[in-house]
Amino acid sequence: MKSIKRCQGIMSLVLILFILGMAALVVKIQREASFYMMNSSEHQLGKVYDRNGDILFDGSGETEFEDNYLIDVGNLIGDDKGQMTNTLVARNIERLNNYSFTAGLVENGGNASVHTTIDHEANRKVYDSFGGQDGCAVAYNYKTGEILICTSLPSFDVTKGYDNILEFRSGTLMSKAMYRTVPGSTQKVSTVIAALEIMGADKLFSKTFSCSGSYKNLGGNNIDCHNAYGHGTQNIQQAVENSCNPFFAQLIEDSDFPLKKIKNVFKEMGYTVNDNGCDYINIDGIKCEKASTTLNDPYEFKTQWGCIGQGDTLISPVQLMMWQSAIANESGKMTMPYLISYTTDVYGKENYTCKTKFSDNIFSSGTAETTKQILLTNGENHYSALISGYKVGVKSGTAQVNEGNTENSLLVGFVDDENLPIAFCILIEDKNNTYVKTENIAQVILDSISESYAKS
Amino acid sequence: MNALNLTLCAVAAASLDICALVLILTAYHERSDGKKRWDRMTSFMELADYSTSYPLGCDEILIGRHASADIRLPDLSVSRYHALLTVSNGIWTITDIGSKSGVFVNGNLVASTRLQENDVIKLGNRRLIFRRKGVC
Amino acid sequence: MNSKVTYVFSCLFVILAHAGMLLNVFFNGNYSNASSVIILSAAVLFLDAAYFTAMLFFKQTTYAIDFLMILLLNMSIIFQSCFGGVRLSVKHYITCIVALAACRLGYILCRNHKWLQQQKKYFYIGIGILMVVIVTLTGTRKMWISLGPITIQPSEFIKPLFILACATSIAEQQKKHKILFFHVVYENFALFGLMTMIFLLQWWCRDLGSLPTFVAIYACGFLLRICYPKAKFSKKKLIGAGVILLIVAIIGIKFAPGYVQDRLHVDIWSDPSGDGYQQSRALIGIANGGWFGKGPGYGELHNVFAHENDIVFATISEEWGLLYSLMMVFVILIIIMIPLINPPRSYFHGTVATGICAAFTVQMGLNIFGSCNMIPFTGVTIPFISSGGSSLMVSGFMTGMLIACQSPVFKQPKPSKKIIKTSTQVNYPPQYGRGSY
């Protein structure tokens, strides 16, 4: 009867709602179970491999490593001890855990693993080439995005644990490539890009400014050049090759180069402009700091230095390298770097495969082509002897840190070769204290990668 | 967890499943029993007019023109909620629930009365017969 | 004859289901001494046999709910006895027997709805007394009364009374009174007042967990009550009102002050040892158990507070597997679904069944979804499965009411009160107001 049917209708409605809720619950648990297990105190972690099958981390603790075998990747790959949080293992415990909802936590014989793009052998060579000097080097394939080399000094032997953590030097427990540093003259690449975006190539190349070793800017401050005798009158190409500070100071004061537009270009490129916050680039879970700068007034000392590479400008080596990819690809799109090539689940089945991703256009392809030409010319004129055997486009930089007490040396660049599409960034700290030069390390990076590419 | 343990889990789960199924079947089986018992309790009666018969499925049957009435008589002479049939102790009673035109049983206007077999109920212009099931 | 065979089969399969579980406990369970499993098995099977014998003394139209209930109660005895090691949970065993007795009581009391409707004022009085008891005796805004080793939660006992108070029959709904232009049923106002009182009381007690249960019962009762108000509420209007309520609720939640939103959404993973401790442990437990569980007694959740009632779903999932706990929920759903298969024969019993359905479902939903962090976590119990005397007794009583809905009697309680006229005489003034039309 209708009256009873009405009761039954309401009951059915309540039951259907509940059953839908239960279905949602089961789906939710299915999808998130491995995340829950990540928060559990029990883990059964699998292995991390490099691109050639070399073990970089073994959660089961079965693999015996030689002393300092993993020292070159220690602070990038990390471990599950909880001391380092911004490492590959710490950020990807969920993928590495030998767990699935159906199989449960597998104690022995789980096949969960992470296969990275790192080339351990090449990476080790690069690490050794630093000769113990602090710094970092990062290199990746700008066509695919695979990070082949990422090493940071000082480092330590992760397998030995943290017993003498108090003796570690500062910066030991982090991969410096992911953290911001003063870019020095490598920042001029960004300024050139901004100038090309705003003025166009013809107008920029028509502009010449003279340098007499020091330039008194419109704000009344002196911008010094590293060449006390001055470079004379130069165009943009010469200024980049000479890394001439007065030229760039005058360029920024030029009325054809309004600061408001510079800010916009910088924001497009990923700078955090005039903001104290810090954004991150996500590289397979690892947080990499984004660039930041302060630009207030084109005649201001600090703003001009900000565009030359000192002042408040801070950029991480990885981001410098990513901009090189946008230049080298001649597209104005950055290739997004990644560390994980593929992962396998507890049964050994591949459950994640990397994909090459590109950013949105951060500048036009015309700008990319012109900048590429400028850097290639610079490389040909000044680095063909230092980095032999490769057609490189580079920009060097010297950054004053610790309030001018020490100088860091930087080198960003790319190889213009279809078969060796590598972009890199090298940082040597306290360069006056060592005979190692950035170009030596670049040579090692490119040699070892091409060797490794030739093998496979 | 080895094969034996898994098998035992499966056995426990399966036996619960089968049990649930059997109990649902029992419930369905009881449904027909319940119907028979209900018929006995209500003396096998039903209402009918010249074309349709209306089963009396629960203890309060609302007769009227409104869509929510159990027995719907779509005729303007019938009130929206016209009369209520109730059963207790196996005896059906019809009650006028505020109709406009009244309830006539065998031609007599009533407020509430006990129904006998083959009584004719007149609601507005509609006539219904109160009869035993299965009689045509 | 045929039905006897059905019942024997039902008994056998209930025992089979329990035997399957006990076998699993025996081979997979975590116990040091086999005697604990034997004691548990004996207790469970004895209870089965005893209840099947007791059932013979009750003449009912249907027995399906009885079978389901003994199935569930014994399941819960086995579950509760296995948490953190197998040993018979005597306390739970006794409460289950009490629940079965309460079920019989509920059945006997609720069979005749006409008699029940005459007692309606006692429901209101009963609820009133319970509310006074809560306000005065529990003190300090707690919901518990401690009597030595036993603690009683009086608010649980309001539930069945409230369901009965919400239930109504068609005849009652037609007794309308006209105030100005509106036809009203006085009882709807009384009920609304009662709901408000309960709401305020629960609010005062900070017992927001059982509030949704009462609201759900009231909502179902209200919906079924306004179905015959001289056609003033069409379906469209009802759906429209529902949609408006939903929108208001969503806006309310969106613009609610921060501390309310904090309570509504707790990020349990940011501080797993703080507010979200129970939920995060529960979810890890479910993940740990997987589909087939770690084995009875091998779970870790028995170290967590309220593992046997508030997060019991997760505890069972961990030890027996998600599959099994889902099936357990399914069995509870079958109990509620029986009135769909075998419909009640009166509107009063229909509304009672709807109220019980709402109460059980909402309680289960709050418990399960709350412990899995889909909705705010509240300390309510799953009927039959959670431990807790008051809750089990009331669940048993409400199941008794469901059984009564299946096997009703239709008798006038006091036949002398109303003279049934068989005469064909006319001109009785209509008994009920010849109101509007």
Q: Greatest contact pair?
A: B-C, 64 and 78 residues
CA radius of gyration of chain C is 24 Å
**Which spans of chain A have pLDDT < 50 for at least 5 consecutive residues?**
none
How far the N terminus sits from the C terminus of chain C, by CA atoms, comes to 52 Å
Widest sheet: strand ordering of chain A: 2-1-5-17-18
Shape of chain C: globular
Largest sheet, strands/sense/barrel of chain C:
2 strands, antiparallel
**What quaternary form is this?**
heterotrimer
Give the radius of gyration of chain A. 26 Å
Name the helix and strand elements of chain C from N-terminus to C-terminus, one letter apiece: HHHHHHEEHHEEHHHHHHHHH
Number of strands of chain A: 22
Strand neighbour order, sheet with most strands of chain C: 1-2
Rough outline of chain A: globular
Q: Describe the main β-sheet of chain A briefly.
A: 5 strands, mixed
Question: Could you explain how this protein is built, in words?
Answer:
- The complex is a heterotrimer of chains A (456), B (136) and C (437).
- With 456 residues, chain A is α+β, with helices and mostly antiparallel strands.
- In chain A, 35% of the residues lie in helices and 21% in strands.
- The longest helix of chain B has 39 residues, at 3-41.
- Chain B has one helix and eleven strands, in the order αβββββββββββ.
- Chain C is mostly helical and 437 residues long.
- The longest helix of chain C is centred in the N-terminal third of the chain and has 27 residues, at 2-28.
- In chain C, the strands form two sheets. In chain C, strands 1-2 form a two-stranded antiparallel sheet.
- The chains are: A alpha+beta (456), B alpha+beta (136), C mainly alpha (437).
- The A-B interface holds A 1-4, 6, 104 and B 1, 57-58, 60-62, 68-70.
Give the topology, please.
The complex is a heterotrimer of chains A (456), B (136) and C (437).
Chain A: H1 2-38, E1 47-49, E2 55-58, H2 74-77, H3 88-91, H4 93-96, E3 99-100, E4 104-105, E5 113-116, H5 120-129, E6 135-141, E7 147-153, H6 187-199, H7 201-206, E8 209-211, E9 214-216, E10 222-224, E11 232-234, H8 236-242, H9 245-253, H10 259-269, E12 272-273, E13 280-283, E14 286-289, E15 292-293, H11 301-308, H12 317-328, E16 333-336, E17 340-344, E18 350-353, E19 357-361, H13 365-382, E20 392-401, E21 406-415, E22 422-428, H14 438-455
Chain B: H1 3-41, E1 45-48, E2 53-55, E3 60-64, E4 71-72, E5 83-88, E6 91-96, E7 103-105, E8 108-110, E9 112-114, E10 119-123, E11 126-132
Parallel strand pairs in B: 3-4
Antiparallel strand pairs in B: 1-2, 1-11, 3-5, 5-6, 6-9, 7-8, 7-10, 10-11
Chain C: H1 2-28, H2 34-55, H3 64-82, H4 90-110, H5 113-118, H6 120-138, E1 145-147, E2 150-152, H7 154-166, H8 170-174, E3 177-179, E4 182-184, H9 186-205, H10 211-225, H11 235-254, H12 258-264, H13 277-289, H14 312-320, H15 322-341, H16 347-371, H17 389-406
Antiparallel strand pairs in C: 1-2, 3-4
